[in-house]
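Thread: N5,N10-methylene tetrahydromethanopterin reductase, structure

OP (GT): Posting the sequence first so everyone is looking at the same thing. Length is 291 residues per the record. Can we get the structure tokens written out before standup tomorrow? I want them in the notebook alongside the other entries.
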Amino acid sequence: MADLVFGLDLPAAVSPGYDPVASARQAEDLGFDFMSTSDHPCGTAPSYETWTMLSWVAAQTSRIRVATRVLGVPYRAPAMVAKMAETLDRFSGGRLILGLGGGYSDDEFRAFGLGVPTPGEKVDGLSEAIQIARGLWSQPRFSFAGRRYGVREADVEPKPEHRIPIWVGTYGNRALALTGALADGWIPSYGFAPPERIPAMRERILAAAAEAGRPADAITGIYNVGIRVDDRAEPEPSTVVGGPEEVAERLAGLVGLGFAGFNFQPIGADRDLQAQRLAQEVIPLVRAAVA
């Protein structure tokens, strides 16, 4: 088995005492492989814009990868996102993971005057966004005419120096098939896709990959998990909680479902301590269990 990868949530919250750069540097020092940020620009809770924040953070770290988890496609023109991604990946030394999603919150789209796509339109838009990015990154004068998005004889230069990975957070049958056919990674959330649902979902992805002529290992599975290392914590249905040994045992079991790593979302106000405990007390046990 290839080495597991471990990521850490980097909140976009604007709150007293919280510094995303300091948190990112801590994650890097602790040995995490990547950090990721969700994309919810509209709402009453103060927050930073995801892309801008990750650009700032990438400039002040050196090794750890930065991931969007996941950009809502309807917020930004896909061709422009492709251009933005090439620039950030180049400036960061090839550390970008481009996470894309069809868009979760209809209320946010409505508030921003973007219109509210149907579930089918969200899947169409996600598929088209991936195809546009890949085309612009690899072909001159690229044209694409989709149901939602298109480009016409578009040139994006320079081209990426390597394949920028595109991860998606998908759940429905059409979106899972899209994942197998087009994406480099699948990052479902524990709360939306509990362990008992994962085998059937992976089967859908792998069947689509085979149909598209892609090997099963072309799609990296990363489980986005709410987590708390605490012997006294009360169990929660959508969160992995317990002492270090208990948490590690549960995570090792989830690896058995086909995941190659995790993105951790620490629960509680002691986020920095949780990150430290995960890195020093849990991750070594998980690696040993699945070696």
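GT: Both are above now. Quick notes for whoever picks this up: The two ends are 7 Å apart (CA to CA). The first helix runs from residue 20 to 30.
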